[in-house]
UniProtKB/TrEMBL annotation:
Belongs to the small heat shock protein (HSP20) family. It holds the Pfam family HSP20. This is Hsp20/alpha crystallin family protein. PROSITE patterns: SHSP. Residues 26-138 form the SHSP domain. It comes from the Bacteria. InterPro entries: A-crystallin/Hsp20_dom, HSP20-like_chaperone, Small_HSP.
Length: 148
């Protein structure tokens, strides 16, 4: 087998294993996950890369307009007699928090998971959408609408 070695990668891997272990009773720091966010019409779409993570290992919580996404990549279940040759994929807890403004409707968030990508669709609240306001004249004449 041909392998290129990188001593710094090995040092990073060692540090991840030492400091980022998920054994009970040990301290671990959640690792951030890559994210894209964009607006389409009346909603925001946020996509998180979570390759190799099963849907049951993903947790979404919202409290006081703070959306927390947590995911855990667990070690592979290898049978007896299997000797790991290369282990570069990070294991453990991945976490990300989004602060949602008052203009977003946190009660109607939709979540989907496909091909290792978690996609959230966050609609804009009705109260934040542009609307027309009627203006009435003092003499009771015609009403006119303007954009708010």
């Amino acid at each position: 087998m041909l392998m290129r070695t990188d001593p710094f990668r090995e040092l990073d891997r060692f540090a991840q294993q030492f400091f980022g272990s998920q054994t009970p009773g040990t301290w671990s720091r959640p690792t951030p996950m890559p994210m894209d966010a964009y607006r389409v019409g009346d909603q925001y779409v946020v996509s998180f890369d979570l390759p190799g993570i099963t849907p049951d290992a993903i947790e979404l919580d919202i409290e006081r307009n703070v959306l927390t996404v947590k995911a855990e990549r667990r070690p592979l279940e290898l049978g007896d007699g299997v000797e790991m040759q290369v282990a570069e994929r990070p294991l453990g807890v991945f976490s990300r928090q989004l602060f949602l403004g008052d203009t977003l409707d946190a009660d109607r968030i939709e979540a989907g998971y496909e091909a290792g990508v978690l996609t959230l669709k966050i609609p804009i609240a009705e109260k934040a959408k542009p609307r027309k306001i009627a203006i009435s004249a003092a003499d009771g004449g015609d009403r006119k609408q303007i954009d708010a």
